[in-house]
Amino acid sequence: MVVFNFRLRSKAAAAAAAAFAAIVTAVVCAFCAANAGESVAAAPAISDGNFAEERAVGEYLDGLGYIDRELVSCDSVKIPREFSGVYEDYNSLQTKNGFDLSKYKGKTVRRYTYSLGGKNAAFAVVLAKNGEVIGGHLTDGEYGGDDAPLEKNGKTG
Fold first, then answer.
1. Measured between alpha carbons, how far is 27 from 56 in angstroms, rounded to an integer?
2. Can you give the residue ranges of every domain in the chain?
3. How many CB atoms lie within 10 A of CB 53?
4. pLDDT averaged over consecutive 10-residue blocks of the chain (157 residues)?
5. 97, 35 Cβ separation under 8 angstroms
6. Which of 10, 13, 70, 150 lies 20 to 30 Å (CA to CA) from residue 96?
7. Would you give the end-to-end CA distance of the chain in angstroms?
8. What CA–CA distance (Å, rounded) separates 99 from 91?
């Protein structure tokens, strides 16, 4: 912000300065009013630059009927080389639904988390690698909450 401090010696100079400020303000307001109806499409807030993979994940969720959604995070996760009890349970859920994360042990994959509008589950979490959906689940977003599977055949569990 720029602030000018000066002293005017006459009333005429003060009136001229006030008129100039009023004109500048009017021009700025007129410009803003003329452009108020225009909007610019916002770029996705979150993107990792892998648009082919993002498109594949989007098409997958479209096929499941999750049209009203918003990407809230996209990050890399590493599938552990050895599955603990929790990961064994998670992979068991995935294999029952047509996915198998054991093929990706020790690999880094992308995790896409979408907020879902109008559905019981608050979020869909989709795992992808090389443009292919490799797993996922629905969650309420609470740690330790009940997760439901995203099925590979186009149905949700």
1. 48
2. 8-40, 51-149
3. 20
4. 61 57 54 50 46 88 88 93 91 87 95 82 88 89 75 52
5. no
6. 70
7. 56
8. 8
